Amino acid sequence: MKIITWNCQGAFRKKAEIILKLKPDILIIQECEHPSKLIFSPSTKVPNDVLWFGENLHKGVGVFSYSDYKFELVEDYNSEYKIIAPVKVTGGKINFTLFAIWANNPSDKKNQYIGQVWKALKHYDQHLNNGAIILSGDFNSNKIWDRVNRVGNHSDVVTLLREKCIHSIYHNHLSQEQGKEKHPTFYLHRDKKKPYHLDYFFTSADILSSLNNLKVGSFKKWIEYSDHSPIIVEINTF
Which terminal residue of the chain, N or C, has fewer Cβ atoms less than 10 Å from its own Cβ? Predict the structure, then answer.
């Protein structure tokens, strides 16, 4: 199974073909238009299933299946947490719960970014204890911005997930430390001199142990399309 997360910085309808060249089974796209606005070119492969989350029809989170995987939103989904959407993924060789993430809630000033993830994880605690789990997307966060006097910072989220035996694929696979990542996923103002690591894959231990490959897209290849680079994960599904 190949699963990719990418903040496309809008206009996904114009950029779909470039990411589809990587042949994903599942795509999580941040800053994606509502499906009613996704008018692809005739040559663009049509997804087999789609879910979309957001309030702005021009920028939300799209989850796309280009395989046999099907999506179903969990019954206790709460749109208050923007945007953290737990989705039941079935129909392929493995079933799992996918948290599609674009942490961005301007109306919650004190918890606009990683605070949204923290709140959502507390709300969806029962889902973190059941079966295979993948959390993927743009967390808009890094340990370098931790506020030690505030509960729910980046390190708190990492610790909470670790206690559930859910770990960052990138940090485990490449032996990286939180806050000291060597592979940026975001370039402020598309400036190579302003790199940050803001995008993540966290998975339960069973999926982590089945990892085949992980790759972070390069600045050179992706900056033409977005200020973010995609993260591509390949998992052996046997």
Answer: C
Q: Compute the residue count for the chain.
A: 238
Q: What is the DSSP letter of 225?
A: T
Gap between the Cα atoms of 83 and 79, Å rounded: 7
Q: What is the helix (H) or strand (E) element at residue 90, kind and residue range?
A: strand 84-90
What is the amino acid identity at position 211? L
How many Å apart are CA 140 and CA 142, to the nearest integer? Answer: 7
Q: Which residues contact 196 (CB under 8 A, 6 or more apart)?
A: 142, 184, 185, 186, 187, 188
Residue owning tokens 């070119």: 41
Answer yes or no: are the C-beta atoms of 36 and 57 closer than 8 Å: yes
Residue 136: CB atoms within 10 A of its CB come to 23
Q: Are 222 and 228 in contact (CB under 8 A)?
A: yes
Number of Cα atoms under 13 Å in the Cβ half of residue 238 = 7
Which of 51, 56, 38 is CA-nearest to residue 100? 51
Q: Taking each helix axis from N to C terminus, what angle separates 114-123 and 154-163, rounded to the nearest 10 degrees?
A: 30
Structure tokens at 30: 């941040």
SS3 145: helix
